[in-house]
Each structure stands twice: as structure tokens, then as C-alpha cells.
Amino acid sequence: MLERLTRHSQSLRLRNDRPYLKQKSVRFSEDGRGKPQLRDIMNQMLSPTIMRNGFDFRLDGSGSQPLGRRAIPPRGVRQPHLDSSQPGASHTSSTYRTMADDSVRQRGPHWHKSQLLDISDSVRSGLRVGHVSSSDTENLSNFLEAALKDEERSYPTLNFETIEHARLDKLLSEIIQFADLMISSNLSPYYLLRLRVNVSQSKHLRRLWRRRFREHFFMIDQHRRAVLVESPGRLKDVSFNSSLDYDLGKWQTTRVTGPVSEVEANLQFEPGHWWLNITCAERDGIVNNSQEIPTTGCYGFPTLPLLTGSEEMTNQSPHGNILSTPLNRSTVKYVREGSSSDMHVPLISQVGRKIRIIRGYKLKSIYAPEAGLRYDGLYIIRQYGCKFDSSANQYRLELTLERAAGQRSFEDVRKVPKPSQLDDWSLYEKLEGDKVKLLQGELSYLEWKLKQQEEKADREAWQRAQLFKSSFSLGSSRDERASKSSFSL
After folding, report:
1. Contact (CB, 8 A) for 147 and 156
2. Which of 308, 311, 310 lies closest to 247 in space, CA to CA?
3. Within 10 A of 401 (CB to CB), how many other CB atoms are there?
4. Are 330 and 410 in contact (CB under 8 A)?
5. In whole angstroms, what is the distance from residue 422 CA to residue 314 CA?
6. Mean pLDDT value of segment 57-85
7. SS3 sequence, the chain?
């Protein structure tokens, strides 16, 4: 060090002797810091530098930052340490090997998007009815613990795409909202305590995600809405056409599909398949028209969309057995009123045969989906009836349908749409409203919005009336059976 100071002082004397080599004076600010040039010179004198591959490593542990402004190393990454007793090149290569080994050892878990989506849908469904099963509580606790540990890594493995696909942001929000309802829930004290811990973990995890993703996390729904119309989205090959004017919507498909055979449709469509509208079902090929009419494939296997009208529950099955609860009733009566063209006359030849049934959310039925369209499986047409009401000057169609055996249970099918699908439905409604406002104006948008609200209120009132009617009929049947038993005694 003394030798270096001596050589430096000699060079300064030489510069003083030669005016063209004389260094410019440096003014110091009030905080005692000079200009960066002199500060860098002093840093090099006090801390020798090793330059390798564009990286600046100093023996005192500082990087290329000035004194007093050294960068803080990321979380979980050890700061490289170089020993001055060996050449700098060997130190750099050994440091790279150490950091590579650390990255391999710190490699996080592999997140499965589909499994995380199933857990999210299952937990959110339980939260909405106020009851979360023990298995869902266990899966939720394991996920939150793993996600919090993953956030402690320098480079977390749970990326933004996985969070977006699995609706994990919606899961955390609904868990936090459920905190106010936990007191009135029917959970055991053990699972109630675990849910309280999960609420605290959810709040902490959401803060970490907001800090890591920043504005992307707050605009995640806008990104989902953009993905909705892209190729993997639910509205792929479907466009909005403002010139269309009928009750089922203003969407049309740009994809031409031929008739679908029975074998092909059974392989592609399972009970519980869900669409946003009838046009999406036409795009996928299960129907051949966006109208509410029965369509037939090339093998003569028809599909009937039940999008409007109503369904009435029957008290007995076609075999004469008394059905106790509405969920156990596999036979329903579909009623539709309108002109002669709305009576589905071609179904007369399908009595006694199987037909695919698609139910829409506008159908007045306790079996109708909450949103969109759902394929409910194969049904057998047991009876077709049509009569003319002269007082109302319209026709009335009555269609008795019995669900075929050997399919996925209807109790599982009724769980569709799932919470993630309802998220897509909300984005779809917002997208359609924006299309109407942009292409048809503010007045048309207000009319569209008012019509949507009136239809929703009408369906909810009808469902409440039907549930009250069914509960009253069940109560009267129990009283009748009790009176008969007491009379026999």
C-alpha cells in the first residue's frame, strides 16, 4: 500500500511539472461528497477492483456503486465473497458455481394450474354456501403455507399466469370476506380456528402479491377479459354483431362446422359442459343453429336447447313411483307458449328416443344454470303435447322428459357453472355491455341494462315461488302419510 501511495505521489508531481497533465480541481459539496470522478479514483485506491465478464467485484464487498450507496442483495441470495489470497478469476468462477448450486437447491415446487383451479373452485363454492368441507380446508391450508414459503425465495415460482388461471386472487378475496361470517357458520371449533389462521395468511399473501406484481395484480381482470376473446378463450371464433336483433343475443360465429355425429359428440361433450351463449355451442358443433330449435346431426341424433319457457316438476315418474324430493326427480315437464313455429313439431317423431338437452339461464326452472348454457346429458322424450289456446291466441307445448340412466349424476352437473366460470360470465356481460354502448350508443346500453335486470328479477321471483310450492307440497304429503299411519293404529 505504501508503494502504491509513493508511486501515486510521484505521478502527481510529474503532472504538476507538466501543465497539460495537471488535474482539474474538484469542489466538494456541503455533505462532504465530491464529484463522481474523484470519488471513483479514491474507491480504486482504497479497494482494488477485479473486472471479469462485465461484473465489478471489490474486495470490500461493494459493487460498482459509489461509497455509501451499496446495493442490498436480493432475499435468499448469498453475497459473493472473494478471498484476496487467490487470483480474481478463480474467485469469480467459484462464486458462479456456488450461486448456481444454490439456485438448484432453492428450486421451488411445481404448481399445477388445473389442480389449483379445482381447489379454488371447491373452496369458493363452500364459502358461498357457508360450509367448507374438511378436505377443502386441508387443501387450502397446505396451499397457503406453500405459497407463503415460496414468497420467501429470491425468485418465487408461483408466477402471474398461474395466479390468473387458477383465480387465486379471487380465492384470497373471498376468504377475507368470509371472516365476518365464520361466527355464524356450522363448522367445528377445530376447522373454525384453522379458517381464522387461513384468513390471516390470505391477507399476508395478498399483500406480498400486490408488492411483487404491483399494477399487474390490480389489473388482472382486464387481462382476463382480453384473454376471453383470444384463441384459447371462451369467445374464440365468435364476434359481436350489432345488426342482429333477437332475444338470444347479438353474437355470431365465424367458424363453419358440419353436423356432429352421435359418436363424435359423446366423445367430445360430457354432461356439465358449459358455454357463454348459444353461439359458442354452435361454434363447438353440438348444435347447428344459434336459434332455439332442435337440430340434428348427420347420424340423426338431435339436440334440443331449452333457453326460454319453463319446467314443471312431476309428482310421479313414468313407472308410477312417488318421488320424494325435487333433486331425485328425473322426469320434468317442459312448457313453452308461442306461435306454431315455436312448438318444435319435428319432435313428434322423436317420442320414445334419446335427445341431448341443453339448458340456458333464462329458462324458468330450478334445474337451469345460474349463468350461460349447460349440457345436462341425454333425456328420453316420453310425451309430446300441443294445443291451441283461443283466448290467448297462442299455442302451448308440453314436453315430458326423463333423464337417461348411466350418466354423470345430475347432482354433480348442477354444480356447473363453477365460481371460475361465473367470473368469466361477469367479464362477458361487461364486454357485451361495452359493445352495445360503443356500437349503438348510451341509450341502447341503458335499455339493454334495464332488460337484463328485469329478466333477472323475474327469474329469481319465479324460483322462489317454485321452491315455496315444492316445500309446501312435501309438507302436505308428510302430514297425509302421518295421518294415515295414525288412523291405521
Report:
1. no
2. 308
3. 21
4. yes
5. 30
6. 41
7. CHHHHHHHHHHHHHHHHCHHHCCCCCCCCCCCCCCHHHHHHHHHHHCCEEEECCEEEECCCCCCCCCCCCCCCCCCCCCCCCCCCCCHHHHHHHHHHHHHHHHHHCCCCCCCHHHHHHHHHHHHHHHHHCCCCHHHHHHHHHHHHHHHHHHCCCCCCCCHHHHHHCCHHHHHHHHHHHHHHCCCCCCCHHHHHHHHHHHHHHHHHHHHHHHHHCHHHHCHHHHHHHHHCCCCCCCCCEEECCCCCCCCCCEEECCCCCCCCHHHHHHHCCCCCEECCHHHHHHHCCCCCCCCCCEECCCCCEEEEECCCEEEECCECCCCCECCCHHHCCEEEEEEEECHHHCCHHHHHHCCCEEEEEEECCCECCCCCCCCEEEEEEEEEEEEEEEEECCCCEEEEEEEEEECCCCCCHHHHCCCCCHHHHHHHHHHHHHHHHHHHHHHCHHHHHHHHHHHHHHHHHHHHHHHHHHHHHHHHHHHHHHHHHHHHHHHC
Q: Note the pLDDT of residue 461.
A: 87
For cell 511539472, the residue is 17
CA distance 291 to 270: 22
Backbone angles phi, psi at 474, to 5 degrees: -65, -40
Task: Please classify residue 405 by burial: count the beta carbons closer than 10 Å to its beta carbon, then call 0-12 exposed, 13-18 middle and 19+ buried.
Answer: exposed
Select from 110, 177, 93 the least CA-distant residue to 150: 110
Q: In angstroms, rounded to a whole number, what is the distance separating the alpha carbons of residues 271 and 266?
A: 9
- Give residue-wise pLDDT tens across range 103-116: 434 566 789 999 99
pLDDT higher at 381 or 90: 381
With left for phi above 0 and alpha for psi between -120 and 50, is residue 128 left, alpha or beta?
Answer: alpha
- CB of 358 closer than 8 Å to CB of 376: yes
* pTM of structure: 0.71
Q: Name 178's Cβ contacts closer than 8 Å, sequence gap at least 6.
A: 127, 195, 199
